[in-house]
Amino acid sequence: MKKIFVLLLASILAVPALARPLLVAAASDLGYCIDELAAAYRKTAPDAELKVSLGASGNFFAQIRNGAPFEVFLSADMDYPRQLARLGVADGATLAPYAVGRIALWTLDPQLDPNKGLAALLNDKRVRRFAIANPVTAPYGKAARAALERDGLWQAAQSKIVVGENIAQTAQFVQTGNAQAGIISFATLHSTRLKGVGRYALIAQDGLAPIEQGAIVTRAGANNPHAAGFLRFLGSPEARAILARNGFSLPAGAAE
């Protein structure tokens, strides 16, 4: 009987422990390619399981600062992860840019031409509502405001602006007709659901800061090898190819 118990115990100990999921907080603009990135990473690390939450980078910043257990933070900017590192709740040594985003002017109304520019669309009487992401919590909303301010349109646009919690909700406002036009991420227009839908024009970057997106391992992910592993993977040629197919550019200095 004792021998059977010893053999049973040995067999239990021989079974590898199930790896706990890697908890990833990802900016909404990654919503259309994060599953592909996760699947590609799992091919290099078969025991990995990723549990991804999507939302506004500013909201994730506040949650992680207040103890949320996310282990990797994929922000739509560099500032939020940099602040987490300064606060001691993320490892600054792991902070790295993984992509550069662009903003685009988008409409579903065939009578509106986004190529005429922001001023023409905002001054068009057919545009009753104009959607942007929240400039306080969403980096793409901050970029939208910067573009409107650069063109001297921010104050005049206030009566038309509707604010989405994140870039996905902003796109939804335009898609459902709750806004006749809006500023969304170029990556969003590469999604299967929206590719080829409506008309868009990239907004000129002149005078605007690049939307450099940063990744960091949080304090909660310090002991999970897949946290650092996934960040390394984001710098690989395979991950960069996935990001490029989905409307992102490479960070400065990244190899093609």
Automatic annotation (TrEMBL):
Protein name: Molybdate ABC transporter substrate-binding protein
CDD domains referenced in this protein's UniProt entry, alphabetically: PBP2_AvModA
Family the UniProt entry places it in: Belongs to the bacterial solute-binding protein ModA family.
Pfam families in alphabetical order: SBP_bac_11 (PF13531)
Signal sequence bounds: 1-19
InterPro entries in the record: AvModA-like_subst-bd (IPR044084), ModA (IPR005950), ModA/WtpA (IPR050682)
Organism: Massilia haematophila
This protein's encoding gene: modA
Superkingdom to which the source organism belongs: Bacteria
